[in-house]
Design a protein that fits this description.
Oligomer: single chain
Number of helices: 8
Largest sheet: 8 strands, mixed
Order of helices and strands: HEEEHEHEHEHHEHEH
Shape: globular
Number of strands: 8
CATH class: Alpha Beta
InterPro entries: AB_hydrolase_fold, BD-FAE-like_dom, GDXG_lipolytic_enzyme
Keywords: Hydrolase, Signal
Pfam families: BD-FAE (PF20434)
CATH architecture: 3-Layer(aba) Sandwich
GO molecular function: hydrolase activity
Structural class: alpha/beta
Helix content: 25-40%
CATH topology: Rossmann fold
Strand content: 5-15%
Protein name: Acetyl esterase/lipase
CATH superfamily: Alpha/Beta hydrolase fold, catalytic domain
Length: about 325
């Protein structure tokens, strides 16, 4: 099923995503421009002379060693000029590129929002700080090319699921203003997202509420306790943390719901605008929850939150 038919299906179904297979995309290229096929993939760090992998810290030359963005631009107006970097989950060992990637991008597109699905590097080959470096580069890239994508440089959010939620929360609590003297215009951009959306996120890496697999694949088998604390996002919320929307379920048997609660509590204490929606029943990893009648309305709550903040049109 092509993109246009999928998008039409999303709208007819009330903008809930359809289940389908992996999107086809061209082989990653250095850059892409508006008008490309939806889901066209771009390298975050273009290859250098002779095709050598240009990604910092690369340990190989395969696709898994080359982080990318898949670009989805809406065919309907984007009056708020909003763009969202989407970080699929997968425990830092694989990525749910359909349910928590393309389906999310198409939902955003149907609401007139540009989307950029991040394929970041994973354990056990890659550990921190590679993953957050990929996320920072994604945000900087979208910000530097904002005008070309029809978005505003100050309306760039990040939406993460599960371990992708941890990466998103980390991006929202560990960022910088960019390197003004860099020869690379992308590296001059701020890596701070303007807002966060966290869906059943991993937040803490400390026991007893940590998702052990995410911690293992991000930090290795015996991480330094100081690093575990440093990457437990609930400990690093400040008044400058971006406004945040959270969704989770009490029944989640994979990532304890208190991960979301503790991050929300930290946001409230720091007086950061935040909204938390908890449902009693529902498994981990539901995405937009098209097969869960009691949950699928959560995306409507997100749309209302985004509209209230001027991040989505009516």
């Amino acid at each position: 099923m092509n993109f246009e038919k999928r998008l039409a299906g999303l709208v007819l179904a009330g903008c809930t995503a359809l289940a389908m297979g992996q999107a086809s995309a061209a082989a990653p290229t250095g850059w892409v421009t508006p008008g490309m096929k939806a889901g066209t993939e771009m390298l975050l760090w273009p290859d250098g002379p002779g095709g050598k992998n240009g990604a910092p810290g690369a340990q190989g030359e395969t696709a898994a060693d080359r982080p990318t963005l898949r670009v989805y631009l809406p065919t309907v107006p984007n009056p708020t000029k909003t763009g969202v970097v989407v970080a699929p989950g997968g425990g830092y060992t694989h990525l749910s590129m359909n349910k928590e990637g393309e389906d999310i991008a198409l939902w955003l597109n149907a609401h007139g929002v540009a989307a950029f699905v991040l394929r970041y590097r994973l354990g056990p080959v890659y550990h921190h700080p590679i993953e957050i470096g990929d996320a920072h580069r994604a945000i900087r890239t979208v910000r530097e090319r904002a005008a070309e994508y029809g978005i505003a440089a100050d309306h760039i959010g990040m939406w993460g699921f599960s371990a992708g939620g941890h990466l998103t929360a980390t991006a929202g609590t560990r960022y910088d203003a960019g390197e003004a003297s860099s020869a690379d215009p992308i590296e001059r951009m701020s890596s701070k997202p303007d807002f966060l959306v966290l869906s059943y996120p991993v937040i803490t890496l400390e026991a007893p509420l940590a998702h052990a697999g995410s911690r293992k694949y991000l930090l290795g088998d015996t991480p330094d306790p100081a690093l575990v604390s440093e990457l437990s996002a609930e400990k690093h919320v400040t008044a400058d943390t971006p406004p945040t929307f959270l969704f989770a379920t009490t029944d989640d048997g994979t990532v304890p719901v208190l991960n979301s609660v503790m991050f929300y509590e930290a946001l409230v204490k720091a007086k950061v605008p935040a909204e938390l929606h908890l449902y009693q029943h529902g498994p981990h990893g539901v995405g937009l929850a098209p097969g869960f009648p009691d949950l699928k309305g959560w995306s409507d709550l997100l749309a209302a939150w985004m509209r209230a903040r001027g991040l989505m049109g009516q």
